[in-house]
Amino acid sequence: MSEPVADGAGWKYTLRLVSPDTSLVPAADVTAGALWGMLYANVGIDFSRGNASNWTAPGLVRSKIGTVRKSYHFSGNAKDYVAQFELPLKEGSKTKLWMDYEEYRHMLKFKEECEMYYWYGQKTHDANGVSTMLDENGQPVVSGPGLLEQIINKDTYSNLTQAKIEEVIGDLFYGMTDATDKQVTLYTGIGGAREFDRALKTYYSSNSYLQTTQPTFITGSGRNLGITGYFTSYEHVDGHRVNVVKSPLFDHGPVAQASKKHPVSGLPLESYRMVFVDQSTYDGENNLQMVNKKGRELLRWCVAGSVVPKGFTETDTRASDIDGASVHMLKTAGILLRRFDTSLDLQCVAS
């Protein structure tokens, strides 16, 4: 009925029941932590004054990006080693030079480690932004949170069902009312893709009104029949669509290799991990973004000794007296989830 009055660390409000026929208020409604909702504000017939409006303003969520480095060394004559068989390179090409193949493998390994950092990275700073990890020179080792650490919604499943998909996705979509170009991508491994397909096929086969006379899952004719057709998307009753994307990292990455095995398939449980990522647009910007430090998106240089590695000129080299050379790669980047409460990390706990 009036402006609040400061009372110690809190505020005092004077309230009045609207209905004259009501004289009691449930005790649960006036205890600490009770949830109230603001509906409307009536005023007197004449000489009323305006009511203050309750409002909130958007805030920026700050994070940090880290630096990933990888180096390799080789002796002075290693670049001229020739193998007795052809080795694969990118784009289907082949070579018999061992060093060309090793350089290709090192670049792939560096890219894999960067992707591991984007997914599984853990922050090294505390709530005040102070990095608590130091290197041998006393310099802070800055690492921002990976995508999985940024997602605050966590859940588990043993056997996935259509009802589970509808429930968890519906909860996520509920907070996406201000999104444009709504898009949710389900990143998972082979196991998760199979589980997603099995859940929807089970739901499909158990509901007669969903049956179709079209040969949706059968190809060929006569004695040459085949089975095809797998669910890779799901359209929610709210009108949103989820697309499934398989990521080899969940099947063959270091975390997958150290993961427990699924009791039925024998695949790593990490392969059954399902990460629903909100990739919609908010305020004209993509919710999921790659952030790079300008000038350090990808650096590659060599330290030349008795030899200069292939692909380098004099302006790329650094002097050394070692009978060999080394190559170094560096990238300062991070993954950013601008709205971290509309995605879900769903892990399998089957045993």
Structure explained in plain terms:
- With 351 residues, this protein is of the alpha+beta class.
- The protein has a domain at 156-287 and 341-348.
- The protein contains six helices and 18 strands.
- The strands form six sheets. A six-stranded mixed sheet has the order 6-18-12-7-11-10. Strands 3, 15, 16 and 17 form a four-stranded antiparallel sheet that branches.
- Strand 8 and strand 9 (224-227) form a beta hairpin.
- The longest helix has 23 residues, at 98-120.
- The N and C termini lie far apart (58 Å).
- The model has no long low-confidence stretch (mean pLDDT 84).
Short description:
This protein is α+β, with helices and mostly antiparallel strands and about 350 residues long.
Please tag this protein with its features.
351 residues, alpha+beta, 6-stranded mixed beta sheet, 4-stranded antiparallel beta sheet, 6 helices, 18% helix, 26% strand
The helix/strand series, from N terminus to C terminus, equals EEEEEHHEHEHEEEEHHEEEEEEE
What is the tally of beta strands?
Answer: 18
End-to-end Cα distance, whole Å, is 58 Å
Main beta-sheet strand count, sense and barrel state? 6 strands, mixed
The strands making up the biggest β-sheet line up spatially as 6-18-12-7-11-10
| Poorly predicted parts | none
- Shape descriptor: flat
- Radius of gyration based on Cα positions: 29 Å
Helix content: 10-25%
The helix count comes to 6
Work out the strand percent: 25-35%
Structure classification: alpha+beta
Mean pLDDT: 84
